[in-house]
Write a structure and sequence with these properties.
The protein is of the alpha+beta class. The chain is built from two helices and ten strands; from the N terminus they run ββββββββββαα. It has helices at about 95-110, 115-135, and strands at about 5-10, 15-20, 25-30, 30-35, 40-45, 50-55, 60-65, 70-75, 75-80, 85. The strands form two sheets. Strands 2-1-9-8-5 form a five-stranded mixed β-sheet, with no helix packed on it. Strands 4-3-6-7-10 form a five-stranded antiparallel β-sheet. The longest helix has 22 residues, at about 115-135.
């Protein structure tokens, strides 16, 4: 289909999404980017954030939170290999708020640079997960 791009989202646990779609909006570490049909070849790293899947190029059909990973765009479509992923509507707000509180405490309690870096990464993910719940759709 010339007006569609094949998109797959894979996490270590499962294949979360596989379909032809109009557009995919991806949270790259260098900034968000959209993948449309006939997109140039790209390999990008992902930051914690929401992948917006647009079925027809304007209507959001799905929103999936990723903790990080890689995206590859080529002639066959776009594949995202996510470290962890879950649909935004499956995120439990209470658990997400607790993870944010725990990450903040871990930063305060960190005794080494390595512990501080790990806690900072957990904090970034927790903040992004909560933001996903309150952010509007594209």
């Amino acid at each position: 289909m010339a007006d569609q791009v094949h998109f797959e989202l894979v996490s270590p646990e499962r294949l979360l999404f596989s379909a032809n779609v109009g557009e995919v909006l991806i949270p790259g570490t260098e900034g968000d980017f959209a993948v449309l049909p006939d997109h140039s070849n790209v390999i990008a790293t992902l930051r914690p954030g929401v992948i917006h899947i647009l079925a027809d190029g304007s209507r959001v059909s799905d929103r999936i939170f990723v903790e990080g990973g890689f995206a590859e765009v080529n002639a066959n479509g776009c594949t995202v290999l996510a470290e962890r992923a879950q649909r935004v509507d499956e995120i439990d707000r209470v658990r997400a708020e607790q993870a944010l509180s725990d990450a903040r405490e871990d930063i305060e309690d960190a005794k080494t640079d390595l512990e501080r870096a790990a806690a900072a990464a957990s904090l970034e993910i927790a903040e992004a997960r909560l933001h996903a719940l309150s952010a509007s759709q594209y």
